[in-house]
Amino acid sequence: MSNMAYKGVNAVDMAKYIDYTGAYRIVTAEEFERKGYPSISVYDRRLQCLQCGEYVAFVKREGRHSSYFRHGNIREGDRGCSLRVK
Ligand SMILES: [Zn+2]
After folding, report:
1. Residues with CB under 5 A from ligand 1 (ion)
2. What phi and psi, each to the nearest 5 degrees, are found at residue 28?
């Protein structure tokens, strides 16, 4: 997985979505936006970065701005994912 520059920030446009049954699938931010999903917090633990496995948030944006996934705040012991927003 390459490091995707996204409008100046290293946002993530694909993630692993974990549903209530524990099953997961690869999703895109574009798909979530099209289906009208609300924003999802890192703390909901529903989305994981494909590269580092850390939980990510879905950031829903309106109008001409595209929605995207992003990492949470840096924690102690963080592995420094290259997809993390600087
Ligand atoms: Zn990551």
Report:
1. 49, 51-52, 81, 83
2. -115, 155
Please tell me the pTM assigned to this model: 0.76
Cα of 67 to ligand 1 centre, how many Å? 17
pLDDT tens-digit profile, the chain (86 residues):
444 444 444 578 899 999 889 999 999 999 999 999 999 999 999 999 998 899 999 999 988 888 999 988 766 555 678 777 65
CA distances from 36 to 2, 12, 44, 51 (A): 27, 18, 18, 25
Asked whether the beta carbons of 51 and 81 are under 8 A apart, the reply is yes
What residue has token string 């996934």? 69
Q: Which domain holds residue 63?
A: 14-71
Cα–Cα distance for residue pair 20/75, rounded to 1 Å: 26
Position 83 in a domain? no
- Token readout for 36 is 């009208």
